[in-house]
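Now produce a polypeptide, keeping tokens residue-aligned:
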Amino acid sequence: DVQLQASGGGLVQAGGPLRLSCAASGFTFDDYDIGWFRQAPRKGREAVSCISVRDITWYGDSLEGRFAISSDNAKNTVYLQMNSLKPEDTAVYYCAAGFCRRGSYYQYASDFSSWGQGTLVTVSS
């Protein structure tokens, strides 16, 4: 039915780049905002980035401009480009379909009803 597939994770050295992909199927991709969340060991789920159906973007305040979200609506895919990765970026990254809150300090997991399985990003020092 409604499915999201996160991919692109892996092992990368500190300072390196990585691009994650979120492929959607089973629903009209243009009708939903897409968020990226991550969960690291000993931490709760953290909102990383969000992109609305109008391509308005949001980023978590700790990312210092290192991450960039983009979408390819023709491919029903959203990307997360991660640069200058740090060991503290190590986490399972999830994409989700739902609602991005514009002008908000937070994005809420409860606003997203469909979730991918997550992809593990490990950044070594």
